[in-house]
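note to self: dont lose this again. the chain is below, predicted strucutre after it. 263 aa total, dont forget to put it in the shared folder this time
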Amino acid sequence: MPTEQAADQQIRHWLEHLEPITLEQMSEIRLMNRTDTKFVTNKTKLAQLLELAQGHYYAQFHAGSKVAEYMTTYWDTDDHHFFMEHHNGRAPRQKVRVRTYMDSGQTFLEVKTKNNHGRTKKKRIEVPSQETLTGGDAFVQERVQRPLETMMPTVRNHFHRITLVNYGKTERLTIDFDVEFKNFETGQATDTGDLVIIELKRDGNVYSPVLDLLRQLRIKPSGFSKYCIGSVMTNPDLKMNLFKPKLVRISKRIGQPLLPATR
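---
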């Protein structure tokens, strides 16, 4: 298997050859009946996917780059209510997070809700910064029926993202890599090495060109929550018995271990 550095070079090479699409052009894409599917793989496979995507996909271009930088802080209660909802497979379930788009400096307070049918809806308001959540109390209270003051920052992640759009403009593909985690409760930090998280967002069940490419590369669907996996990897006091088998499966797929935090 090529080294991570060699894979990074191949990713940059094939990404450079994808036709760009601007944020303004992206706004034309309205996925009204959206379905989301996640996949996990490694950087070598990602380079191969970008090669196969030539002539089929645009790459989002913004602030002079086709790679965007994100920072997200998840908020939870003292008893990790939102984490436990996910761990126990409860639906509907929610997450509260603050996301900064590092290239533009914009920050949004967001509430994500996943319903009983696996559909995810996101509501957000712009706030001044990660530390100043003006208007956040009323926004969160209305959507999760509990005040923001009962929550605190728990896990922060930092990652890079590539966004692809098919020529038919019926789907978006977000590709996240170089994911790092920092836990505010334990002080532990870690990264995910070669891990790549792909999320396909398409309009209903219309034909998706990338599904054929993913099957060709033997990249299979796999749920992945950055909040939950980041929490398990940085906080040994959390209940994690349902996430440990997922870490084992993901480790096998990417060819390197993702380890839960230990005391």
